[in-house]
């Protein structure tokens, strides 16, 4: 409003006739007043009115100084108001309201006198009420007083200009004299009002209607102001507007019921007004409805809420009653219209709740819940039932509004996503955005909105919205697919795939099959997309292949870090395969047989990509190493390539889990032949893993070959080092070389490939050691160095549990080489000793007597240092002579000869033609106990067939270990010595390796003599080998 226009309106108001100003005074109660009657109580009543022209200047507001004058002396009788008399009490309660008119507030005062009503009684009656001496004194005082004169209890005098618009407090009762200064308190309420305003509205309309129109104007102004600033109004009036409204309601003396109802009624009629005010409106209407009609609370506020004295308000009450019927009918009609407006507005908000109560605003759920509660509260009211009987049940109305609103929201969204450029691809994108918005909306309904509607109205918003939207979406998607099915470009296929995934997510939001009432429009929706499956699979493979090629081309074949030993392309490849698995999970085709074929295609493409990657990464390594002069850098790249392949093998191995083969097998079990899944998917996977394994082994083999040359070179150098160098020092160059190289490989290879490399190197190292050992059989020193080298190599390759396990190290080749080096590194006498150990072991393992047996008794007398041998007999000897018999005798020798050089062999008597000779001969050998206790020490019993003309023939040999002879290990002389039966044996027909080794030592005479004797025995044995069935 322009300032000039405002000034003009203000001048017009000032020219109007002034209204009549009034003070609405309510005498509530009093407490602690004086007891003036003989009984100790009083019969109090109050006289009150407005005294004009007695304003007292001064600075102290509130109560005026005590005045001896009373109301009936200072105020005209027609302006004095009187309360009822409350008998026999010191705490009277009146709760009476009076309208007191005044002209000038500056010189007017409110006066109230409280009196004790006295009636004429006889002295006898008063004596009957006497209770104490204090009462007797009152009787004497009454006698001196005029008959029928009331007693003064106190007064309250207040200047009107010191009162606020509304006052409600306790005031002390003041005395006229100093007698009894404490006379109690009086509870008073004051409110300044006016009547008979000169405005047209005040003359023709009830005060409540004027107040309602004023509030409507203020609310319209607030809504307009906030809309201009693009903000929402919080429902609070500005301080200036609130002041105007408060003054109007106060001056018009509107009841609390009317003041509470007005904001709510306005909120019902104004669409943008906050609905929180409607709760106060409904609360006031509901609580005041039964009395509002009966007491005509809808008529003039002054007539409804004030109770003037009979002298001043009789004519006003009659006028109000004449108008009450008409006013009540009008206001009931307004109330019914307000109910209808609120219900219609509330349903319109519910229909548009998605936009009116967005979740982006934090208090939206609370506002919606308040709206529903307001509507529920209104529909439960008796007033609503009487004024709007034709309205249906609220849940039904809300459900219809929600269904209508959901459909409107769908079409609004569809229009919002309408593409600017008409085309199938753009239409597909718009449809996809629409479906995604619907999914988001259903999620919001499920998480927030449905709970609110269910808690307040028991309405399942989510199910209702899902059923409505899925039908609309199904129709729209089918129409779109029918249009694009003939032109399936890659971009269109990608769009359809995203649409399929979104529809699957939407479909999964719906109820499970067991909880449905009927068929859904989206049932079997996957069949709509069946023609697009080939393009989806081809797109997935093409994108993955392009990504693999790009990642390999950008790979510099450098490890990503100390703990991550593969390069960037392996990471990209893992991500690429994960994306393929994610696509398969997104697809999750419902039809089992088709799902199996799709999975087969995914596995086939993944395995093909793996082999393509191997070829590309090897080509990349050759490309980068072509210009490298540093062989170490080339080895680094080769290590990275092998690690990348190993990482790829691990990723490929996770395909059964990522593609959920177990779940697929359960689904297709009824439609596929038994074993078809195993023969198809697993065969593809195993083929890919086998190819990767071959590529990895080839790369590791290449790395191993680079190290094998150095290992062989250092092993061959061992045998050429000077004899003065200790074997432990001779192997140091080899061990340092391996330490450096293996540490390097361990740093650059993952554990699986490093273990494979160690296995290859260990096999090669054993082969080289065996070759060198074979060439140095006659050299104990070289063999000793090789033996120590083998021991150190085993420790090196084991690496305290971080290398090869013991079972991988101790192979058959290792054990054979270890035995050979043990023998080759031993001296000739040690070899002879080992030979007899082996013959003693052979003797212990022989149980059959195919060659016959000898029986002996042997003991050792430590006191005499004599070995006592009784040769008892022989049995089942072979007939070696032409006459079918033999001439046996036994030769006794203590072996090895170097341990018993002074003891010559002994012989028994020769028995003619006897295969079971009884010798019963005793022999004693003077020999200390120490050599007898050594390994290999034995009594060799050689059974020979005596020939007169030629050399004696060998019947067999028996070996008695001396360490087992009684008396050798103890100090006690043996008593009864047991017999020992020894089966006869032959030397090994193929030659003993110890003898072969001794034979190779041409320069060792002792070795040659021993070998010559043992060879002779072997030749004799070969001439008389037993025939089958002997």
TrEMBL record:
Keyword Methyltransferase listed: no
Family to which this protein belongs: Belongs to the unc-13 family.
Name of the protein in question: Protein unc-13 homolog D
Taxonomy, superkingdom: Eukaryota
Gene Ontology process terms (BP): exocytosis
Domain C2: 3-147, 850-975
Gene designation: UNC13D
Main location: cytoplasm
Topology term for the membrane: Peripheral membrane protein
GO cellular component entries: exocytic vesicle; late endosome; lysosome; membrane; recycling endosome
Subcellular location: Cytoplasm; Late endosome; Lysosome; Membrane
Alphabetical list of Pfam families matching this protein: C2, MUN
Described function: Plays a role in cytotoxic granule exocytosis in lymphocytes. Required for both granule maturation and granule docking and priming at the immunologic synapse. Regulates assembly of recycling and late endosomal structures, leading to the formation of an endosomal exocytic compartment that fuses with perforin-containing granules at the immunologic synapse and licences them for exocytosis. Regulates Ca(2+)-dependent secretory lysosome exocytosis in mast cells.
All residue ranges annotated as the MHD2 domain in the record: 728-835
Region named Disordered: 301-320
InterPro entries listed in its UniProt record: C2_dom, C2_domain_sf, MUN_dom, Munc13_1, Munc13_dom-2, UNC-13_domain
Alphabetically ordered keywords of this record: Calcium, Cytoplasm, Endosome, Exocytosis, Lysosome, Membrane, Metal-binding, Phosphoprotein, Repeat
GO molecular function per UniProt: metal ion binding
Origin species: Neophocaena asiaeorientalis asiaeorientalis
Domain MHD1: 497-617
